[in-house]
Amino acid sequence: MGIVKTEDLVYEYIRRDEEGNVEGITRAVDEVNLDIRQGEFIAILGHNGSGKSTLAKHINAILNPTEGTVWVDGMDTGEADKVWEIRQTAGMVFQNPDNQIIGQVVEEDVGFGPENMGIPTKEIWERVEESLKAVGMYEYRRHSPNKLSGGQKQRVSIAGVLAMHPKCIVLDEPTAMLDPSGRREVIRAARALNDVEEVTIILITHYMEEIIYANRVFVMDNGKIAMEGTPREIFSQVEKLKELRLNVPQVTLLAYELKKRGIGLPDGILTTEELAEALERIRP
Amino acid sequence: MLRDITLGQYYQTESVIHRLDPRVKLGGTLLYIISLFFFHNFLGYGVAAIFLAVVIRLSHVPFRFMVKGMKAILFLLLITVGFNLFLTPGTVLVSFWKLTITKEGVRLAVTMAIRLAMLIIGSSIMTLTTTPNNLTDGMEKMMKPLKTFHVPVHEVAMMMSIALRFIPILLEETDKIMKAQIARGADFESGNLIKRARALVPLLVPLFISAFRRANDLAMAMEARCYRGGEGRTKMKPLIYHRRDKIGYLCILIYLALGFFIGRL
User: Fold this and answer.
1) Res A164: pLDDT
2) Which residues in chain A touch residue B133, judged by CB atoms under 8 angstroms apart?
């Protein structure tokens, strides 16, 4: 069994009127089966309301399945006494950087998780130092989080999760509120953790540019997994992505349009360099 | 504009007073304030003033920062002095129109002014030399015995530090909402008091909604990081008494002994 596994996972939001009667049921996650191996970089893609954030909250045991089961490192998230161990194994970074930083100084915020776990003081300091260095925020350890940029705040949040020594980090749209340079910073930090520390990364996003580094991509639509595969496999199905209301990166779109007009390009081009090389090869 | 408000009035510098354990400073300030109300003669206030002067000297905080705190209560000080001066019965010194100044009144007014001034300066030394975070930490540790009476000490301290963290964020948000409302024709500056208070409603409603949303997010983020109350929690920066803190306590005791010996003659 992998680090995260779901079986026929269903989650329903129940809307109630003022008397508490059921008004309607929305199925946010519908029969999802995932099996993620330790050390993978996974991207879950989907437009707003596709159920990707709801799915993410199950991995951290913030939500419990209506039907089906979620296992994190072999532990069933439905078991109440395992909740804290699960949250320690699968850390979570949220969308809004301001609403998840608790400390008034960067280092204190990073120490918050280990403090909750009851780690001895000396080890907390070691973990804080090592986590801040891993995301490149060590020089800012004595700063107030209010004075940092969005990308820096998100890196502090990642360090805060990393200090709990998780096996897996779920990033729930960590870049949605950032500018392009902040977005790059955060993705770079996540990739470094995956490469160097071999932490499993589950990146939830609606920016397609961010998924090109993933080992596997899941595309969600209407609570279901609509597509699954490597980034290249996903990007080669431009028509289907458009159907799912996702914005295909410009390079991929350009290559696709060129191919449609009879230029012999391969499917699923991801970067500008790749396109340039492919064009060079077919130069008469 | 709203962003410029600095929270607390911590003055960043290196000094012995800054490095003292917050518990020493809290306890010391409390004892100092109480002592001010027990002196019978002006010599006692002399001792208190010398003690204060030495602490100010040691704290490396410019004196004008302490006087700043005085400005806020200047009005209160004037009223107190006025009332004491004119309304104390006793031997009449001067009398004009309906007002009389008595000998006892002058004495009481001067004592009151000295007490209040020293009280404000004394407590502002504490807030000037201690970070808000340190202060809540100190309070949490000092109040710990109250836990046996089911006082939620840890929770209150956690709430205080979260409030401190979110005040600048909410101020910024208020600023943003205000600008958005002004852009749509809201008027916060003209009209009488009632009109102005009513103009604040479209400012407060979105602010409250956003604050609740933030609180919800934060609670989720805290739970995701294994927060489950004060039980079994360790501290990254635990408060430990050092030699300087013991010396600090000793100094306070010496001051109290001296003050009571001289001030109650």
Assistant:
1) 93
2) 104-105, 108
Helix B63-72 with B103-129: angle, nearest 10 deg: 120
More confident residue, B2 or B153: B153
Tell me the nearest-neighbour CA distance from B233 into chain A, angstroms: 5
CA B209 to chain centre: 29
What's the pLDDT score for residue B3? 40
> Model ipTM?
0.86
Centre a 10 Å sphere on the Cβ of residue B119 and count the other Cβ atoms it contains.
16
Q: What confidence score (pLDDT) does residue A204 get?
A: 93
Taking the CB of residue A75, how many other CB atoms lie within 10 A of it?
17
Q: Could you write out the DSSP letters of every residue in B97-153?
A: TTEEEEHHHHHHHHHHHHHHHHHHHHHHHHHHHS-HHHHHHHHHHHHGGGGGGT--H
Question: Mind telling me how many Å the CA of B201 is from chain A's nearest CA?
Answer: 24
Q: What is residue B25's predicted lDDT score, i.e. its pLDDT?
A: 92
Continuous segment of H or E residues that includes residue B48: helix B42-59
Q: Of A12-21, A141-150, B89-98, B155-164, give the lowest mean pLDDT range.
A: B89-98
Contacts of A228 (CB under 8 A, 6+ apart): A216, A217, A218, A219
Across the interface, of B133, B162, B228, the residue whose CB is closest to A84 is B228
Residues A15-27 have pLDDT tens digits of 888 887 888 888 8
Which parts of chain A register pLDDT below 70? none
> So what's the pLDDT on residue B69?
67
Give the per-residue pLDDT at B163: 86
Query: How far, in whole angstroms, is CA A84 from its chain's centroid?
Result: 20
* Band of pLDDT at residue B2, cut at 50, 70 and 90: very low
CA distance B232 to chain A (A): 6
Which residue in the set B165, B225, B236 is minimally distant from A164, CB to CB?
B225
Give which of A201, A91, A164 is closest to B224, Cα–Cα. Answer: A91
Q: Is A200 helix (H, G, I), strand (E, B) or coil?
A: strand
Classify A23 as helix, strand or coil. strand
Shortest distance between the Cα of A26 and any Cα of chain B, in A, equals: 21
Q: Look at residue B9 in the predicted model and tell me its pLDDT.
A: 66
C-alpha A48/C-alpha A221 separation (Å) is: 9
What distance in Å separates the CA atoms of residue A111 and residue A119, rounded to the nearest whole number?
10
Instruction: State the DSSP string of A26-66.
Output: EEEEEEEEEEE-TT-EEEEE--TTSSHHHHHHHHTTSS--S
Contact state of B226 with A84 under an 8 Å Cβ cutoff: yes
Counts of helices then strands in chain B (DSSP H, E) = 11, 2
Which of B161, B168, B233 lies closest to A118 in CB terms?
Answer: B233
When CB atoms are compared, the residue of B218, B233, B236 closest to A99 is B218
Chain A residue with Cα closest to B211: A99
Tokens of B144: 């710990």
Q: Which residue has the higher pLDDT, B89 or B226?
A: B226
CA torsion B101-B102-B108-B109 (nearest 10°) is 10
